[in-house]
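Researcher: Can you fold this with magnesium ion in place?
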Amino acid sequence: MRMSKTFVKTLREAPKGEEARNAQLLIRAGYVHKEMAGVYDYLPLGLRVLEKIKQIIREELNRISAEEILMSTLQKPEPWKKSERWDDQEVDIWFKTELASGGELGLAPTHEEPVTELLKTYVASYKDLPRAVYQFQTKFRNELRAKSGILRGREFLMKDLYSFHQTEADLDEFYQKVEGAYAKIFERLGIGAETFETFASGGIFTKYSHEYQTLIPVGEDTIFYDKEKKVFLNKEVYNEEVLRDLGIPEGTEFLETAGAEVGNIFKLKFKYSEPLGLNFQTKEGERQTVYMGCYGIGVSRVFGVIVERFADEKGLVLPEAVAPYKYYLVANGEKGTAKATEIYEKYREKDEMILDDRDVRFGEKMKDAELMGIPVRVVISDRGLETGEVEVTERATGETRKMTLDKVFGAL
Ligand code: ATP
Ligand code: MG
C-alpha cells in the first residue's frame, strides 16, 4: 500500500462522543470509520485485519472438518416462533422490519434456528451424520448500550459454527475438538496467554456452557479464577452449588478480574432440533432427534480485544499474525526515497509493505507508523545507505537495530 494513494488519512483526533479506546485508536489510525453508536465501517486496513483473523479461524475449523457456508441475514419469523425466540418479550435485541408485500422480517442476531431448518433438507438418515457447518456473518443486535467501540456493536461480525450428531458421545467428542481448535486460534491470534476457557451459564446437559474470556481491564464480565488450579468461572454462575458440581474444593480463594467474552461454546442437545423437528432415521429404522452444538467467536470483538490488549501511549500495537501489513517503510533523503521505492516495487507481490511516500514531514511519518501499529518500521536514509544499512524498529518492543537490507527483507 502506498500512503500517497490510499483515500484514508490518519486523524489527529477521534470523533467527539467516542468513548472507547479501541474505537478512538482505530479511527485515528484510519482502520475504521464510525457511522453511529455501535456501527462501524471497516476501511482497507481494518478490513485486512478482519480477513487475517477470519483466515486463522477458517484454517483451524477446516482442520476439524467443518464446512464453510454463508447464510442469509433476512429471517422469516416461522422457525423462530417454533423455538419461542421471535417474541420481543423473549429476545429483546431483535431488529425487525416489514416486507413491502406484507409480513414481518427480522435481521439475524444469530443463526441456530435457520441452520437447524437448513439441515432438515439434507439430514435424513444416520448416514448423513455427523455434520458441522460454519460461517462468518454480520449479526444485528439492538444492544441497549453500545459504548465499547467494536467490542459491542449493534452490527458486528461473528463466526458461528453448528454441529449435528447421532449421539451424545459424538457431540462430546466434537465439542472437545472445537476446544482444541479454539486454543490454537487464540494462540495464533496472539491472545492465547490471556484467554481462558471459563464456566458460564446456559448449558443444556451440564447446566454450563464454556466462554472464552480474555482477561483485559475493559472487559464487561467479571471472572473468578484460580490460576494454579486452572479454574475460571464467570461471576454469573458462582455459587455453592456450582462449586460442588464442578468439584471445586471448599475454601478455594478466587481472585477477581475483568474479562471480555471472545467466544463461547454450547452443547445444545435438542434445544432447537426438537421444536424445529430436525431428526434422522437410525440404523434400526427409528426416528431420533439430532444432537446439536453451537460455537461462536466474535470476530470484530476479537479485533477490539487485541487492540485493547496491546495498544500503548503511541497508538496501536498489532501482533504480526493479524497486522494489515508487516513493514512500514519510511524514507529520508533523495537516495533513501529512491531505494525505498525500489524495495517496495521489488516486494510488491508479497503485499506486506506500506510505503509512506506522502509529501509530509519525516517526523509525521515516523509517528503514523507507530499510531498504525505496524510491527516493523524500516527507515531508509541517505546516510544509512552509505554503509548499506537501514534502521529497523520493532513496534512491540520499541527496539531499534541497524541491519542490511538483505537481512530485513531476505525472508520475504
Ligand atoms: P455478550 O454476553 O457479550 O452480549 P452473548 O452471550 O450475547 O455475548 P453470543 O450470542 O454467544 O454472545 O455470540 C457469540 C460471540 O459473539 C460472543 O462470544 C461475543 O464474542 C460476540 N458478540 C456477542 N454480542 C456482540 C456484540 N454486540 N458485538 C460484538 N461482538 C459480540
Ligand atoms: Mg449479548
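Model: Folded with magnesium ion in place. The first strand starts at residue 32 and ends at 36.
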